[in-house]
Design a protein that fits this description.
globular, alpha+beta, DNA-binding, 14% strand
Length: 241
DNA sequence: CACATTTGACCGCT
DNA sequence: AGCGGTCAAATGTG
């Protein structure tokens, strides 16, 4: 409602591209050439949108984050982006190709499902401070909200990023993935008709480097507030394209 | 035996 | 005071 015109426009175009991409991928999964190009454009648009949202002085929905920064408050430790990507790939579990170690689970106020906290297994070995939060969507139990934050310094991440030209496991950002037939590493929900835990953390391979993901759906939930922790401050946004 | 996961408690911040 | 996040000890599994 405020001055989100630019951002809205970007997002609108992005949505359109996403649709096109979705159609392309759906119709031709053997030749992701065009899809890939669209993906690039899409990524660029997203990048721009996020940048606009993170710009100072911008009155966007997230502009307050910057203006809210108080002196002495440094949030460089964990940057989060608001990129919500819903990838419906049954074959693509939530495994990012890295090793995550669950270190806690907490029930979130207002959320019917608990939130699991994961950490890089190499945190003690290589000092990888990367962390990941996996939570289930409130209205869509089939959707998993995976929030990555922190920087991956372990060789595993480096190798992964170097081996793939894409950026599935973005350095930072909120990624909403959906795995209808695949459950995360380990999360036990109150009532789950799906596959229980027991996710052997599939090693690299299920990633399918080349075919990659691709089904953008949904909208950009900028965690619009409501009072449920809509406080997001992202100072730096890294996006490799 | 080592590693990963689980659960509870503690701490910090809002 | 409440919520979110992390740590630490215990347990289970491979």
């Amino acid at each position: 409602m405020e001055g989100e015109t630019t951002l809205a426009t970007e997002l609108d175009g992005l949505l359109a591209m996403a649709r096109e991409l979705e159609a392309r991928v759906d119709g031709d999964q053997g030749a992701p050439g065009a899809a890939r190009e669209l993906c690039a454009e899409l990524a660029a648009s997203v990048h721009r949108a996020v940048r606009l949202a993170g710009s100072e002085g911008n009155a966007g929905g997230r502009a307050s984050v910057n203006g809210r920064l108080r002196s002495g408050r440094k949030a460089a430790a964990a940057a989060r982006a608001q990129v919500r990507v819903a990838s419906m790939q049954d074959l693509g579990p939530l495994d990012d190709g890295l090793s995550w170690r669950k270190y806690g689970q907490k029930d979130i106020l207002g959320a019917p499902y608990p939130r699991a906290y994961f950490r890089c297994t190499h945190r003690h070995s290589q000092g990888c401070q990367a962390t990941k939060q996996v939570q289930r969507a409130a209205a869509d139990p089939l959707l998993f909200d995976v929030v990555y934050h922190g920087a991956h310094t372990c060789a595993q991440a480096t190798a992964l990023l170097a081996g793939t030209e894409q950026q599935p496991p973005a350095p930072f950002g909120q990624e909403q993935q959906s795995s209808p037939a695949a459950a995360p590493e380990g999360m036990q929900w109150p009532e789950e008709p799906f596959t229980p835990p027991s996710f052997p953390s599939s090693p690299a391979g299920c990633y399918t480097p080349g075919n990659s993901w691709c089904q953008l759906a949904g909208n950009y939930g900028y965690a619009a507030g409501g009072g449920l922790g809509a406080d997001m401050e992202f100072d730096e946004l890294f996006w490799n394209m």
